[in-house]
Amino acid sequence: MSQASYKVFAATWGNGEVMVELEVSKDQWDRIARGDRVEFKGRGYWYDGDWFQDIWDFNCPHGELTIRYGQPNDGDFSGEGCTGPISSVVVEGR
User: Fold this and answer.
1) Residue 49: what pLDDT?
2) What CA–CA distances, in Å, run from 38 to 14, 16, 27, 55, 93?
3) What is residue 82's three-state secondary structure?
4) Residue 47: per-residue pLDDT
5) What pTM, to 2 d.p., does this model score?
6) Burial class (CB in 10 A: 0-12, 13-18, 19+), 83
7) Which of 15, 32, 34, 46 is least surrounded by Cβ atoms within 10 Å, i.e. has the fewest?
8) Using an 8 Å Cβ cutoff, are 59 and 32 in contact?
9) What's residue 90's pLDDT?
C-alpha cells in the first residue's frame, strides 16, 4: 500500500485468472463510507493478450460494489467481473 493510500481493495474472477486492485485515499474512502455513489477507473489488466479497463462502482446500491470491465478502444464496459458487499474486497486499510 502506498503512502497516499488509505484502503486497498482486491477482487478476482474468471476462476482466479483475473486479479485487480484499487487503492483509494482517505478522502475517497470517506465518500464511499458515507454511502456516496463513487466510480473509479482501476489500473487495467491484460487477459489472453488483450488489454481491459476495470471500473469500480461503489454504493450502487448502498453498501455494494460492482466491478465492470471492457476494452477502452470500443468504450463498452458492460462486462461484470465482480459484485457483492464492499466489505468483501477490502484487503488492507488504516
Assistant:
1) 94
2) 25, 26, 12, 10, 18
3) strand
4) 94
5) 0.89
6) middle
7) 15
8) yes
9) 81
27 is written with which cell numbers?
A: 478522502
Q: Is residue 91 predicted with pLDDT exceeding 60?
A: yes
CA distance linking residue 27 with residue 33, whole number of Å: 10
List the domain range (segments joined by +) for residue 49.
7-93
Question: What is the total count of domains within the chain?
Answer: 1
pLDDT digits (tens, 9 = 90+) for 4-57: 779 899 999 999 999 999 999 999 999 999 999 999 999 999 999 999 999 999
**Domain-located, residue 2:** no
Evaluate whether residue 1 is within a structural domain.
no
Strand order through the sheet with 18-24:
18-24, 7-13, 90-93
Q: What is the rounded CA–CA span in Å between residue 31 and residue 14?
A: 29
